[in-house]
Amino acid sequence: MRGLVIELGIPQATTVVFSDSQSAIHLTKNDAYYSKTKHISIKYHYVRDTVAVGEIVVKKIHTSENLADMLTKPLPIAKFEHCLDLVSIHSI
Q: Cα torsion at 80, 67, 29, 36 (round to 10°)?
């Protein structure tokens, strides 16, 4: 997405990625090798490199405010309606 936005000529200094996983955030910021992460292929470590350079900033978002949930998992109707409110979509 970042490449597309740059190619369209829209200046993009830093991309903010929100995550509700403390483990994922920690892995992006710490380049140490852990035995529990040895299954992660080296080609996926580019995220660490882009975070280290400052192109991407990973920030914590509370699970209740995570909009991606409505597109990635089944939700109770109340949580789904809350996500719709967050993106300003209202049912008639």
A: 30
- Residue 86: name the closest of 18, 22, 34, 36 by CA: 18
Banded model confidence at residue 31, pLDDT cuts 50, 70, 90 = low
Burial class (CB in 10 A: 0-12, 13-18, 19+), 81: middle
Q: What is the pLDDT of residue 72?
A: 83
Instruction: Tell me what pLDDT residue 77 has.
Output: 87
pLDDT in tens, 5-28: 888 988 878 888 888 888 888 888
32 exposed, middle or buried (CB, 10 Å; 0-12, 13-18, 19+)?
exposed
Grouping H, G, I as helix, E, B as strand and the rest as coil, residue 52 is: helix
